[in-house]
Structures are given as C-alpha cells and as structure tokens.
Design goal:
This protein has 16 helices and seven strands. It is an alpha/beta fold and about 425 residues long.
C-alpha cells in the first residue's frame, strides 16, 4: 500500500516537472509570436500624408511593418481596378472626396465603428465625420483634411473700385451672391471691362450649391430632381454672372487661369482653403495684394480626404490604431504646417500655428477665416451618383458661358441628359 502511494506521488511529481519545464519553454515561443511584426500596406497620393509623419509612424508602431506606397497617376482608377480584381489590395487606403462612389461597395471595407472610431467622434467636425458614413450607418472613411471655402479677392482692385477692401468689411457688406454680383458690376465699370469679378461659370455654380445641405439625392438614394430649389438657384446665379459679363472664362488648372490671376484680370473667386497654395504658385507677382473674407451666400466645402481599411486586411485593429494616430488632432495640426492640409479636428483651430500671418495675403492670418467657415459647413448628403450628375450640369453650363448657348434650351437638354444618366 505504501509502495503504491509512493509510485503515485512519483508520477504526480514527474507530471509537475514536465508542466513546469513546459511552462519554461512556451513563454519563449509565445513571446516570439507576439513580437512578430504585423505587415500593413498603405496607399496614398503625393501630399495627402506627410512623408516625415509616415516615417515617424514606423518608429511609433515597432510592431507594424508598414509599407507606404505613394500612388501616382489616376489614383481612383487604380483603386477601383484593384477592388474589381480582388487582388493586391492595400490594408489602408486614402480616399478623396469621391468616397461616396464607393458606398455601394461598403462590404469591402471595415466598419470603423466596430474598431473603436465612435470613442473619438467628438474630436472631429460633425459634417466631415458623416461624409465617411454610408446611408446604412457603416463608417468606411476616417476624416483627414477638409476644404472649407472663402472669398479670395484682390484688396488693391477692390479699393480702387470703391468697394470695401478690409476682410471684415468685405465679409459684412458682400454677404450674398446678389451683393457679390453688384460688386462685380462696379469693378467692370471702374476698369472698363478689363477686370472680371471671377474666373468661370463652374466656380459660381459649384460654390452656390456647396452652401446647401441639399444636393441631388436623398439619403435613401432617391433623386430629388432638377427642379429642386438649390439646383435652380445655383444654375440661375451662374447664368446671371455670365449675362452680366462678370466671368473671365478662365478654366482652373490651365495656363490661362494662372496668367489671368497673375496679371490682375481676375479680381476674386470663391475657393477652398487649398487654393491658397495654387494661387501662390500661379500668381507670384501678386504677392501681398490678396486677402480672404467669408464667402458670399454662406460657407461651404470643396474637397478633403479620408482613410479607409479594406476587408481584405488581416489586421484591422492594428490598421485602425495606425489610422487613428496618423489623423490625430495633433498630427493634423502638424500637417497643416507642413502641407497646408486644413484639419478636420476643430480642437486645434485656436492653436497659434493656425493664426500665423501670411505675407502673400498682405500679412493677414487667413487661418481663422477658414476655421470659421469649417465650423459652419452644412451637413450634406451626396450619394454615389453625385459626380456623374454634377459633371453633366457643369459641362453644359460651360456651353452657356463659352458658346453663348441659350440658357433655357441648355437647361432643358441638361434635364434630359441627367434623366438618361440615372436610367443607366
């Protein structure tokens, strides 16, 4: 009996030794697994994320092997082709303001709410946050930069024409599209038709409609119709500017636009904050002569980006932590200073860096003007077919401006073209 007990205890001791020795081996194996780096790939385009910030991210997250690929050429086309092929997809991808075109493919993206995005929602502009949320409530885009709009104007030309020229006075007195048009007629008279109020008809249409919460589609996807008040107002305002001779007919991103800005042919335009850099590069000879005021008719937004995580990623939580850090309020502030990317995190708007005086704008600090605009942008729904409808309208408006086509006939034709497009 004693021998049997001794044998039993010996067996138990041997099991314990094995367990202890096993425990001494497994932690090393677990540590090796835990220390293995997670591989993530990021797609972005030039100047959408600061390269130095990406380099710091690699230091901040030693557990992540980050491959950041700067995609050139047609970024959207490459992404859509890759999604269609279901091969070679990145873990994280930057999306521009055409994010709504990907809403029907929401199942290809992780819902960022499931990864913890809701915990920091209050740190970002509500309208910007909602632009990354599909009609079904899936958040597929994390806020990056924004494009709040304002009125860029030549202070010297406004003053010479007898118009208000101080930014606060311009904001107060030229506060509607009618008042803006009247200012244009005064400029036209003063300079004998050699100075135009603004650049082109599409700019007017785009900026008027951007000031409304209603566009072309409802959140359920139904078409509001071409007879909606805001579409009619935007069209009529743009046509009125043409008929009054207030347009230079200089298309953006062209040498003629650059020349018109640089030689004083154009006295103003309503544009997004990122147009500051475009203007400075296009019109270096006008440095010190420009100012910025709140846009006539209200505030709007044009442009801005998002970061998304594709469902093909095997490490969504790690990807989200990286996205969250890259677009933290602090890092958005830094990218405003390095790349002029305007933050979507209003908590940084009062930072001194947002209030620095700018020589090109006559020593004015334009940051506060755009900050006020950003906090007043209407929350609008776009829908995935917004770009196709919008492009039809602006192309036809160009026929009115450049070919002197009859506005009413063009409008009727535009309505039919939009209807055909929506039946496809």
């Amino acid at each position: 009996m004693i021998r049997r007990k001794r044998t039993c205890w010996t067996a138990i001791l041997m099991v314990c030794v094995l367990l202890i020795s096993g425990c001494s081996i497994w932690p090393g194996q677990d540590d090796s697994a835990n220390n293995k780096k997670v591989a993530l790939t990021l797609w972005y385009w030039n100047r959408s994320i600061d390269d130095k910030l990406i380099a710091r991210a690699k230091e901040k997250f030693p557990n992540i092997e980050l491959t950041a690929q700067k995609i050139g050429g047609d970024f959207k086309a490459k992404l859509k082709t890759t999604l269609a092929a279901r091969s070679g997809e990145p873990d994280i991808v930057a999306l521009n303001d055409w994010i709504m075109e990907l809403f029907p493919s929401e199942d290809r993206f992780y819902n960022l709410y499931d990864l913890g995005a809701g915990d920091i929602e209050d740190q970002y502009l509500p309208w910007k946050w909602k632009q990354g949320v599909t009609p079904s409530g899936q958040m597929i885009g994390f806020p990056m930069d924004t494009g709040p709009t304002a009125l860029f104007y030549r202070e010297d030309l406004f003053k010479e024409a007898g118009l208000p020229s101080d930014p606060e006075d311009v904001t107060r007195q030229i506060n509607s599209w009618d008042a803006y048009a009247a200012a244009g007629e005064q400029l036209k008279e003063k300079f004998g038709g050699k100075v135009f109020l603004t650049d082109n008809i599409a700019t007017v249409y785009n900026q008027v409609i951007s000031q409304s919460a209603e566009r072309y589609f409802r959140p359920d996807g139904s078409f509001i119709g071409m007879d909606s008040p805001i579409v009619g107002k935007s069209w009529d305002t743009a046509v009125a500017f043409k008929e009054k001779g207030l347009l230079a007919n200089a298309d953006g991103w062209t040498p003629s636009w650059n020349a018109a800005m640089n030689n004083g042919e154009i006295a103003s335009f309503v544009g997004a904050v990122w147009m500051k850099q475009v203007l400075q590069e296009a019109a270096p000879d006008t440095s010190g002569k420009w100012r910025v005021a709140r846009a006539p008719g209200g505030d709007g937004n044009n442009g801005g980006s998002f970061l998304s995580i594709l469902k093909s990623s095997e490490h969504p939580q790690e990807a989200f932590e990286l996205v969250r850090w890259l677009q933290s309020p602090e890092n958005q502030l830094e990218q405003y200073q390095t790349l002029n990317l305007f933050p979507s995190a209003p908590g940084v708007f009062d930072d001194p860096a947002m209030k620095e005086k700018e020589p090109f704008f006559g020593g004015q600090a334009t940051g506060p003007v755009f900050a006020e605009s950003a906090q007043d942008v209407p929350n609008a729904f776009f829908g995935e077919r917004y770009p196709s409808v919008h492009n039809i309208i602006t192309r036809r408006l160009n026929d009115v401006a450049k070919q002197n086509a009859d506005p009413q006939q063009v409008w009727t034709d535009t309505v039919h073209r939009v209807e055909r497009e929506l039946q496809r």
